[in-house]
Amino acid sequence: MPLALLALALGGFGIGLTEFVIAGLLPEVAQDLQVSEAAAGMLISGYALSVAVGALGLTALVNRLNRKHVLSGLMILFIAGNLVSALAPSYELLLLGRILSALTHGAFFGIGAVVAASLVERSKQAGAIALMFGGLTTANVLGVPLGTLLGQQLGWRSTFWAITVIGVLALIGMLVLLPDRPVDKGAPGLRHEVTAFRNRQVWFSLGVTVLGFGGMFGAFTYIAFTLTGVSGFASSWVPGLLILFGLGMFAGNLLGGRAADRSVPLTLVVVLSSLLVVMIAFALLAGSQIATVLLLMAMGAFGFATVPALQTRIMGDAGEAPALASGANIAAFNVGNALGAWLGGLAITAGGGYTSPLWVGAALTAGALLVLVVAENSRRRAGRPSAAGTQDTPQSTGIHEHV
Length: 403
Known about the structure:
Layout: H1 4-20, H2 22-33, H3 37-61, H4 67-87, H5 91-102, H6 105-118, H7 125-154, H8 156-177, H9 190-193, H10 200-220, H11 223-229, H12 238-262, H13 264-285, H14 289-318, H15 322-352, H16 356-381, H17 393-402
C-alpha cells in the first residue's frame, strides 16, 4: 500500500471532522457567541452550501492543473479556514472560517480519488479509493464524538485547533509522499461533461439527493438539542450517542452499497421508506431514552445507506460523461444539508420545539420518495432500463472520483 494513500486518508479525516463535529458543539457555540439555535445551525448549512460551490466551481477551475499542487493548495485553504474558526472572536468570523474550509471539501475528494486510483494497479483502484474515503468514515465514527468531547471539556475552539493540526500533518504528508500528477492534456474537457445534463433522469437524481439527504440532515443538525432538551440526556452523553450514530452510518453505507449492486431503484425505495418511518417514530418517541438510542442508530444507517445508490443512479444515467454529474451530486448532497438545516432552524424558531427538525426531515424524505417514484415511472414510460447497480470500468471510475 503506497504511503501517499495514508496522507490522503488523513486529509479526508480532517475534512470529515470539520463538516460533522460542529453538530455536537452547537449548544456551546450558540451560548458562547450569544446567537440563536437557528443562527448556530447556519454554521452547518453555510458549510454545506460552500461545499456545493467548491465541488463544481473549484473542480472546474483546477481541472487542468497538477494534481499534487492542487491537493496541497486545497489543504492550505482548509488549514486557513480552521485557523480562522479557532481564533474567531465573533459569529461572523466563525462562519467565514467554516466557508473557507468547506470550499476544499468537494474538490479534495473528487481530485483525491483520481490520484488515489493512479497510485496502484488497475485491479486495486477501488480499494485505494476506499482507503482514502475511509478517513471520512473514521471521522464520523470516532473523530466526531472525540472532537465533541474535546470541545465540551476544553471549549469548542480547542476542537478547531485540533483539526488545524490534523490539516498541517496531512499537508506535510502530501508534500512529501504524493508524486507529481500532471493532467493528461488529451483528457475530455468540461464541455464534454456538460452533455450528461441533457438527460432528465440526471436531474431527477439530483432532486432525490437534495430532498433525501436534506431530510436526514434536517434532523441531524439539531440532534444535540433534541438529545438534551427532549430525551433528557446530559450534554456529557452527546459524544457517546454520536458514536452510535456514526456506527449506524458506517454500517448503512456498507450495506447500502451492497444492496445497490443488486438493484438501485429497489434500494432507494426501501431505504428512503425506512428512513421516513424512523424519523416519524423518532419525533414521536424522542422522550424515551431507549427509543432515542435505537432510532438514532437507525437514522444514521438509513440516512447514509442512500449514498451509494444515489451516486450509482446518477452515474448510470450520465453515460460517458460521468465526472461533472458526479460532482453535481456531491453539490446536491450539500445543498440538501443546507436546506434541511435551514428548515429545521425555522421550525424551532417558529416554536415547534426540538422535535420539529425530525418532522421537517420526514417531510423532505417523503418528497424524495415522491420524486423517485415519478422518475422511475418516467423511465418506464420511455422504455429505458433502470440504472444498473454495477457499472462498467469508465463509469465506475467516474463514481469513485467524486463520491
